[in-house]
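Course assignment 3, question 2. Fill in each field.
Student: A.L.
Task: Predict the tertiary structure for the chain below.
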Amino acid sequence: MNEALPRKYSRTGLLLPFILVGLALAGWTVWWFWLTAQVEQRLEAQAASLRQSGWTVTYSDLSTTGWPFRTRVEMREVTIAAPSTHALASPVLVAEANAYAPNRWVVLAPDGLMLTRAAKGKVALRGDAIRASISGLTQTYPNLAVELANPVFTAQPGAEVFPISRANRIEFYLRPHLGPAEGTPVPADATTRLKPGPDSVDVLFRLIEAEGRAGGPVQGMARSGKLTAQIETVIDDAGRLRGADSAGIFAAWTASGGRFLNTRGEIAAGDSRATLSSDILSADAEGRLQGSVALKAERPLSALSGLAQSGSTAVNPVGAAGAAAASAAQGVAGGEDAIDLTLVFRDGRTFLGPFALAPAPRLF
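Answer field:
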């Protein structure tokens, strides 16, 4: 009697999943290496383009890691200097993105930054976190967010002192201008707002619980307390900001009639509070801000008196004292804590009524 031979089973079914995973992994690895090569090529191309425009861009030890799911680019001894001699340097910069969605990058400066403010010298910046995120790279203007957690500013020997010594947080956001969404409630002041052109960007700046340097104007205004500010505006005709030269990126924009539109904000300095608004601000040929800002101020006397007594060479103590006295008189006459004031930027100076307080803020 013949015995039945054992039945042989195909191993193809057992091996197939491993074969598919292996092929997928091989394909993904090819994609990852292609992506990282593209990142390095575009980075070098951008650096070369900046150098041709007069910028100084140097770095060393460029490396790309992060396989399989991330793309991580690390550069050491980085220096980026504009023709205006403003510059940024860092011992190490790291940029990361998801390899499967490389349209959003996060840039980190784990060892801090060194900022060069042209003729004002260098200031070291360190903090718990120094990072920027960039997305929407296919847009005309990408979305940019810069965040500094517990930043500390230290002016280097021979440099001009920095206005603030530290802060709880500093944030800066930029995006293509977005009009109000359909159905959004219209703000009460919307009738006074100007309609920006299509080539515009929205900007938001937040300074949270900043401490001024000893004897400086910020410390004087805050009466040794904290300064918090939030300012939002629209940069109209933002395309003119491109092509920086020795005068800075705002020079061509200013010369072509660039404007800040619909500026709104809030400021708190010690016991003083104010909301601010301005429909149009621009800059003069010297880069100084010009225009007017309406303030609804609460207890402004404290801030103005502290400013007058700060001893800062940038502040006109006589003008600040006069503005404090006028504000006090207006507050008494009105019988209210909140009073209306107007800051005017003209002829390179900042005026409160007839009193010159300090130089106007300078863009370039």
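Instructor remarks: The chain has a mean pLDDT of 82. DSSP finds five helices and 19 strands in the chain.
Grade: pending
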